[in-house]
DNA sequence: TAGATTGTTAATCGATTAACAATC
DNA sequence: TAGATTGTTAATCGATTAACAATC
């Protein structure tokens, strides 16, 4: 049962709800009204109620929301109760950082292999992973149950790797290459584009300095 | 002369225009119409014309846009012709990756110092930088001309560091800590929240699998 | 019960798209 | 000139906010 059309604007607010609810939970806050939450999270109370009601009536009139229950519900909505098997492609600086990134496991993602195209890297170890040859990634995805690929390679090779992954049956890509990958519409791509973020910062800095 | 109110939606599309125009330029394409650009970038032609006209009339009726000129103009709008002096705080995996990230210099950002709180890290070298003690960051910002700080530390210490930076007169923060920093409204904060990105991917994967 | 706060409908606002006169 | 395409105004669409009846 996929949900009726939830807009990306709503979806991208969900992790924020989850995070603020976890904070409240760690402070032993039992319940919270949309008004109180609005004050700490910075969305309007109205928006909070609208957002949550896309997924169900989690609150109670006159009471508000139970923090623990809501936190758990949003976790479920985000799919954090699931396990996804991931491979990482591109064991450069960023790739290594992500391999060691613990938030990854907390979200239910488990890295099962690491690949690189550089012969000097192949065979070296990152955490428990012996770096494998990128040439074998298609075969590996075919023969193992891989849900997502984390793509951390320069933009030149990225589309080619994406094509391989798609052929091998990958379901999602967490893409750090500064390029818009072209994939069939049933493959999920979530981009983290540091260049775009940096350019945005540059723009805002410039505007701010000029007044 | 700051621009009339440009929405964030428009601003976040600018880096994409810049990137696609660079691609066209590298393919020696001289001119392009909003319709042609729309086909490769995936925005509507109407939106492209609206977006660009926020900043000036860069096109010519009956002709379209000169690729090189437009690319250059957007670079200027993004402030890529400027120099910003940056420090990096938190020399862990991600911090090291960013220190070595070349796109950074291409955008006009120059790293001038690297800090870490871990005594075992202090004194070690990353690229040309001897890692300095985070305790000295406030003093350093005060005494040197620092425009932005790249914050790559765990969320616990992040607000405290941000407070120090603000006191010392920082103008912008590129924030990788998974927390919403509270800073005065004249300080620019650009967030890169890997956890939120990952949770979004998890949500979309789940929805996709469930149909 | 009275007070509080949700869930939900209606109103507003802003962003996107369509249309077309201006003009190269 | 005729054709193409912009710049810009108007129309549409979608997202946010306001309002309030339902109800705990």
From TrEMBL, chains A, B:
UniProt domain CoA-binding: residue ranges: 79-180
GO MF term set: DNA binding; DNA-binding transcription factor activity
Residues annotated to bind DNA: 16-55
GO annotation terms (biological process): negative regulation of DNA-templated transcription; response to redox state
Keywords, ordered alphabetically: Cytoplasm, DNA-binding, NAD, Repressor, Transcription, Transcription regulation
GO CC annotations on file: cytoplasm
UniProt keyword Metal-binding present: no
Residues that hold NAD(+) according to the record: 90-95
Keyword DNA-binding: yes
Gene3D superfamilies from the UniProt entry: NAD(P)-binding Rossmann-like Domain, Winged helix-like DNA-binding domain superfamily/Winged helix DNA-binding domain
Compartments where located: Cytoplasm
PANTHER family: REDOX-SENSING TRANSCRIPTIONAL REPRESSOR REX, REDOX-SENSING TRANSCRIPTIONAL REPRESSOR REX 1
Chain's role: Modulates transcription in response to changes in cellular NADH/NAD(+) redox state.
Family per record: Belongs to the transcriptional regulatory Rex family.
Self-association and partners: Homodimer.
Protein name in UniProt: Redox-sensing transcriptional repressor Rex
Annotated organism of origin: Peptostreptococcus stomatis DSM 17678
Organismal lineage: Bacteria, Bacillati, Bacillota, Clostridia, Peptostreptococcales
